[in-house]
Amino acid sequence: MFCQRFGLEVHVTRHAWERMAQRKITRELLLDVLETGDIRYKDTQRLWVAKEIFERDDNMVCAAIMLEDRLVVKTVMHHFSWEE
Predict the structure, then answer these.
(1) Mind telling me which InterPro entries this protein's record contains (predicted)?
(2) Residue 58, SS3?
(3) CB within 10 Å: which end of the chain, N or C, has fewer?
């Protein structure tokens, strides 16, 4: 999988695949979130990408990401909201 937005290959960890399966989040939905979701950086390497998916009733879907030589998806969450 490749993310045009970041110009990097995407590596999804085993943990993230498991959470995606539990939460019925497909590979295509994950890629849509990565390409078009809102981004918030924790620091230069750690960030979250989240998007409200109107077809779902579980609020925003969010991916926790590490920027390395590729985009590493550490986990995928639902019922997510940004901390203010």
Answers:
(1) DUF4258
(2) coil
(3) C
Take residue 55 and report the two structure tokens written for it. Answer: 């077809």
| Structural domains for the chain | 2-80 (3.30.2310)
- Please give the structure tokens belonging to residue 16: 């993230």
Of 22, 28, 17, 38, the C-alpha closest to 81 is 38
CB half-sphere exposure, 10, CA atoms < 13 A: 24
Terminal-to-terminal C-alpha distance of the chain: 32
**pLDDT tens-digit series, residues 9-24:** 999 999 999 999 999 9
